[in-house]
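User: I'll paste a sequence; please echo it back and then give the predicted structure.

Assistant: Echoing your sequence first, then the prediction.
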Amino acid sequence: MKNKLKLGQAAGVVAFAIIIGAVSMSSSSTVDARTSLKENRTVNAGVALGLTEAADATELLTAGVTSALTYYGADVSVAQNDSNVVTASAQGAQVGNTAQETEQANEASQTPTAAQTCGYTNLGMSAISSGNLNIRQEASTDSEVIGILTNHNACELLEDAGEWYKVTSGKVTGYVNKQYLVTGDEAEAIAEQEIKTVATVNTETLNVRAEKSTEAAVLSQVGNSEAFTVNSVADGWVEISVDDSVGYISQDYVTLAQALPTAKTIEQVKYGDGVSDVRASVVSYALQFVGNRYVWGGTSLEKGVDCSGFTMRILGKYGISLPHSSRAQPSYGTKINASEAKPGDLFFYGSGRSISHVAIYIGNGQIVHASNKRDGIKVSNAYYRNPICVARYLPD
């Protein structure tokens, strides 16, 4: 039969076939019709075809043996021909596995974003070309600076305050100028690049080993609540960067979580009585460079510096001449107990009695130091590892 049969003319045959979901054309020709064909719709049936009605359009579609046809529309004519090929004149016909596509779309919509993974509901990301972005106590450039953001740090937007956003980031809540924050899709795109796995120490003191073994040499020790960006996790060990070295800590004593970089508090610059203006100035000057690059052997506070280069440059501004060596710097000062440390004193770290790292004490149990290539210049807990010695260089 090459001529089309009107449904009205063959109701006893075609309509019955559509209702039961199969039209038998030959031993190899069936149609699965998932819609009621109305008057004036005719079906040209061929080899194994799935039909599903959807919307309106006008185009001719030829479906092969494996096609599933979703058709949109009004009048459809389908006819048997000698070659058992299905043709459908439908409005806006589509071919494909629509159920699978819908399932894939649903799965994609349920995948959490970087912001959601890290607990943000209204994400903002700092976007600055250099230096630091101040977080202020009030929405004014005359207000006190209470924290700093470096480039691509995350914050939760709490309130729109005109030219400012009230934000919270890390332990700091205050106001940031809008022009240095991005939001929405732009913030999420940055967050997708910046999200990292962080290991937070949950024991008082944890050894950092040279290899993934409790028998390996101890490179250093890290303290409770200290957080480190994870390089990798394998065999129950977490690889991290500590100061100038790469080491391993036991996965049993850390909490792993996805996180975005956040603000640094500068509460440590509020010393109270008994701290000289010179010491306060040293700390304030050193904190200006938080977020800048770590470069092994470097001596530039802006372009890149290592740990001893950092202390050499900072104290050098105040007339203290030091060599570019963390091992040599203690002998240029007066050794004191860590409990006696004041802002501007230097803390020295290493393995055993061998010094390999140096930092500037900034008060309230905190240090600022050129840590490593991953973290750059940062603020840390002064006892994130046990200091080998502490030395004083500045007058009281």
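The radius of gyration is 34 Å. Residues 42 and 77 are 4 Å apart (CA to CA).
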